[in-house]
Amino acid sequence: MKKKRSFRNDVINLTLSACIVSAVILGISLITLSANSFSKQAYSDLVFYLENTNHKFDGYIKNFENIIFSFRNDSVIRQFLQEDTYDSEAAKKQFRNNVDLFSEANMIDSVYPYIESIYLFNESGDYISNQFYPKTVEAAKLQNETFLGIKDFFYKQEKEYWYMNTGKHAYICTKVYDENLKENGCCVIQIGKNAIDTLFQESETYRGIKWLVNGQDGEIIFSDATRNSGTEKLIQNNQYGNKEINLEGKKYVVNTKKTGFGMKSSICIPKRNIYSAIFLLMRPFAFIFLLLITVLSAVIYVLSVKMTKPLTQIGEDIKKFGDENLDGRMRGFEIVEFDDVSRLYNEMADRIQELITQVYEKELLATKSHVKYLQSQINPHFMFNILSMLSMRAGLKGDKELQKLLGAFSKLIQGKIFRKNEIMIPLAEEIELVEFYLLLQSERFAGKITYEIKCEPESLNIPIPRLIIEPLVENAVAHGLEPKQEKGFIIVEVKKQHEKLWIQIKDNGVGFCVEDADQNVVPDEKHTHIGIMNTKQMIRAVYGEEAEMHIESAAGEGTCVTILLPLEEEE
């Protein structure tokens, strides 16, 4: 025999699983949103770094441009450039004052200058110069010869700008013009590779940086140490601004900026730096999330065990009563809803014990006693099924749903058992009992049973015998709709018709043979028609021959019960 599952374990596992899944979904959603936000911020920071680095390089170039433009407004320098006769010492002194290579604008950091040496040539071939590093006489002579050779080669190119890279140094040559834009000389500067490397060096945040400085004809003036023709071509072809490109199978973010003297600087950083930054930021979030999941699981498990403990106790108490121990009663609970179930169950058990005693000790011969006996009939299977369903709801649903179902069950029990001194009640109260019963059964079968109650408002105060409709509805559900495999419905309709109260209970259940019911033939004890027989007896006892009851049914076609009662004076 297959081992049955424990409802309590199912509730605990389901609750725990639902909470963990919800927490995981929420955590993943928050981590995804946070990662998306962090990625945007990381991308923005990366772009800012690229733009800022290129901006610094452009700043040093503009400082060089400003030096060239300042020559036009300096009379001593202008005399050196434009006249054959000039004061050589005054020109050299003034040139060193104008071109301060030790100024902050020329220093990359505290060690390396941007411009190491600068030479200014006039049309006659004379020059004045300034150097950052001191030179010996022999070294100075050699350097002068180098700059003169560069100047001569530059004039042969007949270009506005010209560049030369020797590995350790780069040289930039540009023509110099007077205020009338007439050429009257040229200027050659020497830039150290160490200074450019320092400017474009890898930061502590970003790794794998590549950079390139091109001349106006695309020639490479400076580049990083990892020279690659394909990489350089991709960087050279990049338009100005920010863009994403593929280099060596990796994605890079590149920024290209046009700078002075016809040059273009480009710097790119692997996009994986963004993911690394996100990973570092999200790692604490992931740890906290896993810690919260662990704590939440423990808390939910403890609470689930505590909340479902009353279900086990209810089952134990019901089993005691079911073992023919009629004195067994259900214990009280601290939880209001469970305590209400316990109280109603104990009241019901007391009433059942009392009725059993009355059956054995008295003969119910009087009409009133007979009617009270019929009204006190209750299907114990229904009670236990509903109690089981409510217990399940206690673990799976919220308090409002539980309160609604317990209220309906409580009202139904009170209406069926504990109003023992009443025979006639208003139609509205009987309809209310029917609605409570159908609500509980529809919840019990989770969508399998649907129902509709139609009642004219002007008929609600008409007095009728208590439990004249509800047992027929219960009979229709238990023997008509429950055995049906497909979904079923039941319609209860009450109205005034031809000076009588017309009541009809109709379902699309499995149906039955009307002749067997009329002859009280019971082929199967599980499918009795006690509800129909009790109602017939009650109608006969209260109204005599003035009332009518008609039954229409066939196997597989449902059942329709119609009752016609004489109208009583409304209270």
Explain this structure.
With 571 residues, the protein is an alpha+beta fold. The chain has 15 helices and 17 strands. The chain has helices at 7-70, 75-82, 88-98, 137-157, 193-199, 229-236, 272-322, 336-361, 367-375, 380-396, 399-418, 427-444, 470-481, 514-518, 530-543; strands spanning 115-122, 127-131, 161-165, 169-177, 183-192, 210-214, 220-223, 241-247, 250-258, 264-270, 424-426, 449-455, 463-465, 488-497, 500-507, 548-554, 558-566. A five-stranded antiparallel sheet has the order 2-1-5-4-3, sandwiched between helices. Strands 7-6-10-9-8 form a five-stranded antiparallel sheet. Strands 12-14-15-17-16 form a five-stranded mixed sheet, with helices on one face. Helix 1 (7-70) runs antiparallel to helix 7 (272-322) and helix 2 crosses helix 3. The model has no long low-confidence stretch (mean pLDDT 81).
In short:
This protein is an alpha+beta fold. The chain has helices spanning 7-70, 75-82, 88-98, 137-157, 193-199, 229-236, 272-322, 336-361, 367-375, 380-396, 399-418, 427-444, 470-481, 514-518, 530-543; strands spanning 115-122, 127-131, 161-165, 169-177, 183-192, 210-214, 220-223, 241-247, 250-258, 264-270, 424-426, 449-455, 463-465, 488-497, 500-507, 548-554, 558-566.
* Radius of gyration from the alpha-carbon trace, in angstroms: 50 Å
What is the terminal separation in angstroms?
Answer: 58 Å
Global mean pLDDT:
81
Q: What is the 3D form? A: rod-shaped
Tally the helices: 15
Please state the structural category: alpha+beta
Strand portion: 15-25%
How much helix is in the residues?
Answer: 40-55%
Low-pLDDT sequence parts: none
How many E strands? Answer: 17
Largest sheet: 5 strands, antiparallel
Order of strands, widest sheet: 2-1-5-4-3
